[in-house]
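Hi all, long-time lurker, first post. I run a small reading group and we've been trying to get comfortable going from sequence to structure in the token notation. Rather than ask abstract questions, I figured I'd post a concrete chain and ask someone more experienced to write out its structure so we can walk through it together at our next meeting. Sequence below, copied exactly:
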Amino acid sequence: MSDRLAGEPIEILLVEDNPGDVRLTEEALEQGDVLNNLHVVGDGVEAMKFLYCEGEYEDTPQPDLILLDLNLPRKDGKEVLKEIDEDRELRRIPVVVLTSSEAEEDIAKSYELHANAYITKPVDIDQFIDVAQNLEEFWLSIVKLPPNDE
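-- Answer (accepted) --
Happy to help. Here is the structure in token form:
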């Protein structure tokens, strides 16, 4: 992430199985003027393949930011968080849980698994645009993350 030059698009991995939420995220990022390459996978198994550059994802870039839904088919968001946390390289990528769940146990478990932030999905498009703009500004402009060890 620290290798990204100013003005280059950020690489965002969206792990979301709801096509409506995918469209909403795309629109929010576009309207929020977030210069990005958005990669979308529909479940936790595909997310891990993407992160490990396996199969059809062998040429994908490492994301600068992961937006992760918790309620996913095949492998849920908590399982994905656990795998990311257990991998020395992957755990350097900021993970923002972006989900409809307001359950306190989901929030606590996400932070226990080292999610960097937990955001309940806003229903209103204007709120969602604000969320997208704030995510980009905070995680990619303000926060200083450790360098990648290569």
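A couple of things your group might point at:
The chain has a mean pLDDT of 83.
Residues 92 and 145 are 8 Å apart (CA to CA).
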